[in-house]
Amino acid sequence: MPVIHQKPSLVTQIVEKRGLLVHGDGVAPHRHTEGQLLYPSAGVLATTTKRGTWVAPANRVAWTPPGFEHYHRAYGQTEVRVVEVAGALCASLPDQPMVFAVSPLLREALLVLTSGRELRPEARDRLRGVVVDELVDGHEEALYLPEPTDDRLRAVTDLLHADPAASLTLAELGRSVGASERTLSRLFQTELGLSFHQWRSLLRVQHALIRLAEGVAVIDTAARLGWANPTSFIEAFTAIVGQTPGRYQMELRHRDR
After folding, report:
1. DSSP element (H, E) containing 81
2. Stated pTM of the model
3. Is the Cα torsion angle 170, 242, 247, 101 positive or negative in sign?
4. May I ask the CATH architecture of the domain 10-144?
5. Is 153:188 a contact under the CB 8 Å cutoff?
6. Which helix (H) or strand (E) holds 108?
7. Beta strands in 107-247 (DSSP E)
8. Residue 23's closest CA among 77, 67, 72?
9. Domain boundaries, the chain
10. Which residue numbers delimit the HTH araC/xylS-type domain (predicted)?
11. What is the dihedral of CA 193, 197, 201, 202, to 10 degrees?
12. pLDDT digit string (tens) for 237-255?
C-alpha cells in the first residue's frame, strides 16, 4: 500500500463535495454508509481496495458502494467532486467499485450538484436520479486492475508494480519467485480472469494515464513503460481507454485552458 500524504483539510473538503488534491495527496482507508461517486474533473484519481485498483482519469467517474473499504490517491493536480448516493438508489448500481465514462448530461448534473448552488431538496433528488440513470445506461470503463491472493502470484505482481516497464517473461518472473510458468499462467486466469500479458498491459496503461496527465509525451510514455514501439502502446491504450493517448492528452490540455 502506498504512503498516503493526507492534508488535514482534505477530509473536510471532500465532505463539502468539492476539493483540490495535489500529486500524492489522498484519503486513508475508510468506508461509507452511503454510496459515493467521485468525479475528477481534472487530474487522475485512483481508488484501491484489497481486490485491486480502479483508476479514474479526468472525465470519468469512480463509483464506490456503501460499506466497501477503500482509499484514494491523486496523481497530478486533481479536482475532485463528490456526490453521495442514498441506499435506495445504490441498488441500481454495481456492488463493487467501478469506473464509468461520463456523458455530457452526467457531467453537467455532477457539476451542478457540487457547485455550491442552492437547490430545492426535490430538485437535488431529481438530479441525483438523473446521475444514477446515466450510470445505469452508460458503460463501464476497463480501468480495473485486479490483485491476487495467492502468495506466488502476489510475488510476481509485486515485481511488476515495482517496475511496470520490466520486459521479463513469465518464465523469468517464475524463476524469481520459485513457481513454474505453467502454474503462474493458470493462476492469472483463475484468480484474475486475465492472461499475464493482459494484466501487465493494463498495469502499464494505468501508469500511462498518470504520466500523460503529468504532461509526458506519448512517445516518451511508451518508452518509459516498456512498450516495444509507440504503435503497440497506442493500440493497447485505445483498446482499454476508448481513445488514443494523444486524444486523451489533448482533451486534458483543453480542459486546463
Report:
1. strand 70-85
2. 0.78
3. negative
4. Sandwich (2.60)
5. yes
6. helix 104-113
7. 144-146
8. 77
9. 10-144, 148-256
10. 154-251
11. 10
12. 999 888 899 998 888 777 6
